[in-house]
TrEMBL record:
Residues 107-265 form the Flavin reductase like domain. InterPro entries: Flavin_Rdtase-like_dom (IPR002563), Split_barrel_FMN-bd (IPR012349). Belongs to the flavoredoxin family. Its cofactor is FMN. Keywords: Flavoprotein, FMN. This is Flavin reductase like domain-containing protein. SUPFAM superfamilies: FMN-binding split barrel. GO terms for molecular function: FMN binding.
Length: 315
């Protein structure tokens, strides 16, 4: 049996994924393109600015009315319309190498929430890893999904642990400990306990064995609901595992609750999301849009429906 210190020391000796020092800080000046070389970070960027919190503004087109589509007349909308004139670039996923499809999809479908998944192996080794192929699927039943890439080299420990123990917790990552969470993405052998790598604190769960992350303001205790290995069409070997989790308990730090005590205030949660490459995002601004009721908009919609020509082009 390894002691905490031995396990940690061995990890530090064997890890090649964590790099430090000036040689790794060589990404050149600010770019909006995602950095897919995750070992190189840009030290010439401005420092993180904690006071920038989430605030509500007016929506982009406050005067927008039914049927107006991309409303012209604002600089943003007009430049968007200009961009549309450039047309499309199209990839057939069948003919695109997986690595390129990964880059396209993970930079295009953004921002993605990140599940910080805590599991325990059958042998009792705790595991912690971030996963951004993640979403809440429904609230009744309360289900979430996490997808785990199934590398032929080594299935993810998270997958193996969920498969064998049928339990996990999903924790939401906030700005103050994002580096600690990111460090858990190191491709370490199964015997490595990423809690030691992160320095984060395990908090006992109510219903499942895997602990929650104490520093995470949102912790979801999950039981395995469904587990499916999926393969590309025509291929036999699965390349991804889709896990559905049934959320049994929801734990929220009181400090991030909104005034009503029953919802979360985004400006307090300061959640971190994943963009393409090694880029993370945080919340800046938001806006409210009221939901249309059929009752109040029926007349206008019926009128549009009767006057608009068929405008869906076909192949
Ligand atoms: C922000 C972030 C999101 C990630 N999302 C996923 C994901 O959705 N699925 C996946 O298989 N790996 C994902 N990874 C990579 C895993 O975290 C990484 O492979 C990790 O070593 C898996 O740990 P495990 O083997 O202990 O389960 C992500 C990494 C980061 C940094």
């Amino acid at each position: 049996m390894w002691t905490r210190t031995q396990r940690c020391w061995h990890f530090l000796q064997s890890s090649t994924a964590i790099t430090s020092g000036p040689s790794s800080h060589c990404r050149s000046i600010s770019t909006t393109h995602p950095n897919f070389n995750s070992t190189k970070l840009n030290s010439s960027l401005p420092p993180f600015s904690p006071p920038t919190g989430f605030r509500l503004t007016q929506p982009p087109n406050p005067e927008w009315d039914l049927g107006q589509g991309l409303k012209p007349g604002s600089p943003l909308n007009d430049s968007w319309a200009e961009g549309m004139k450039q047309g499309w670039k199209t990839w057939s996923t069948e003919n695109t190498p997986g690595r390129d499809t990964y880059k396209l999809l993970t930079s295009a479908v953004i921002p993605r929430p990140i599940a910080f998944v805590s599991t325990i192996s059958e042998d009792g080794v705790p595991n912690l890893a971030p996963m951004s192929y993640f979403s809440v699927l429904s609230h009744d039943p309360p289900l979430l999904s996490v997808s785990l890439l199934l590398s032929p080299r080594k299935p993810k420990d998270t997958r193996e642990n969920i498969k064998s123990t049928k339990e996990f917790t999903v924790n939401i990552i906030s700005e103050p400990f994002v580096e600690a969470a990111n460090a858990c993405s190191v491709e370490a052998p199964a015997r490595i306990d990423e809690w030691l790598v992160s320095g984060l604190t395990p908090e006992a769960s109510t219903h499942v064995k895997p602990p929650r992350v104490k520093e995470s303001a949102v912790g979801l205790e999950c039981e395995l609901y469904d587990f499916k290995d999926v393969a590309p069409p025509g291929a036999e070997k699965p390349t991804t595992t889709i896990v559905l989790g049934l959320i049994k308990y929801i734990h929220i730090h009181k400090a991030v609750l909104a005034e009503d005590g029953n919802t979360v205030d985004p400006s307090k949660l300061r959640p971190v999301a994943r963009l393409g490459g090694a880029t993370f995002a945080r919340l800046g601004e938001g806006f409210d849009l009221s939901r249309l009721t059929w009752k109040s908009s029926k007349e206008q919609i019926e009128k549009l429906h009767s006057t608009q020509p068929e405008n869906i082009p076909s192949r």
